[in-house]
Amino acid sequence: MFNEAEKAFNIENYEDVYEYLKTADSVVPKFLLMLGISCFFTGRFQESNKILSKVLFLKNIEQNHRPLSEEKIISDGKRLYKLLERMEINKIKLPYTFDEPIPQSIERANESYVELDQFKIIMLQSGTTAGEQKISEFLDSLKLNLKSSDSEKRASANFNLAQYLNIRGEDEESIIYYLDSITYGPNKALHYGYLAQTLLKLNKQNYIVATYSRRALDLDPTNARWHFIHGIACNNLGRNFHKSFLNTSTFEFQRALNCCRSEQLSLRKTIEQTMHKLNQ
């Protein structure tokens, strides 16, 4: 396991390194640093910060006469830890997820989700007096559910209100409701994914986008869209921040294509067009 992890690390295949080492029971600084660095370049910034802050302050980390390869890993780990501090990564608050997994949302061929069906039916009635009345009543019911003692209802209400603000072009305001939707529904990948998608649209810092898209695909690794969004964020990071993110981007785009079901022709086409454009 450790040999395979080291081979993957040397060719910057960071996702494989993470898979090899995430459950490894190792206290060897070199492998902990490899795991922390791999977390960084796969968008697991909070996890990277936690590991690097722990291992870099071990008493024996500054031993002399280390092999040059280990010295480089230590140097890289220190550099990335300083970057994480400058990024103020601890200010991005991700809620704790529940141990018990929940069924995740399945994207349809037309790129829709069942969670937004009622919202879309109501919104299609806009333009008439009766339709506007129904929209008003629907929004009132959502606002009422914002105060519900039922966390699932509260999460859904915040998510739907975020979507309402989105279609009105009020994307900045929608972020507040997306954030609340993940607070009350921390195991729902859909909410993280749509938040990441909106942040990407608004050209927010790509490491913030990647933080939420990473959580979405960790909760639901079979959803092609979350891999796609994460791939775009990592590509942007690779072009503007550190080239090692480009390997993760390539991996995520390929995973996105692999996760597309046969009927998801529209999403597949978008992914392929994006990959072609980025490779030009």
Characterize the structure shown:
α3 (29-41) crosses α5, α4 crosses α5 (68-87) and α10 (189-201) runs antiparallel to α11. The protein has 2 domains: 1-90, Serine Threonine Protein Phosphatase 5, Tetratricopeptide repeat; 130-279, Serine Threonine Protein Phosphatase 5, Tetratricopeptide repeat (Alpha Horseshoe), CATH 1.25.40.10. The protein has helices at residues 2-10, 14-21, 29-41, 45-55, 68-87, 117-123, 129-145, 151-167, 171-184, 189-201, 206-219, 224-240, 245-259, 265-279. With 280 residues, the chain is mainly α. The model has no long low-confidence stretch (mean pLDDT 92). The chain contains 14 helices and no strands. The longest helix has 20 residues, at 68-87. The two termini are 37 Å apart.
Overall pLDDT: 92
The CATH homologous superfamily of the largest domain corresponds to Tetratricopeptide repeat domain
Question: What value does the Rg take, in angstroms?
Answer: 21 Å
Assigned CATH architecture of the largest domain: Alpha Horseshoe
What portion of residues belong to β-strands? under 5%
Secondary structure tally, helices:
14
CATH topology of the largest domain: Serine Threonine Protein Phosphatase 5, Tetratricopeptide repeat
Distance between the termini: 37 Å
CATH class assignment of the largest domain: Mainly Alpha
How do the helices and strands follow one another from N- to C-terminus?
HHHHHHHHHHHHHH
Number of domains: 2
Please tell me what the overall shape is. elongated
Number of strands: 0
The biggest beta sheet, please? Answer: none
Low-confidence stretches: none
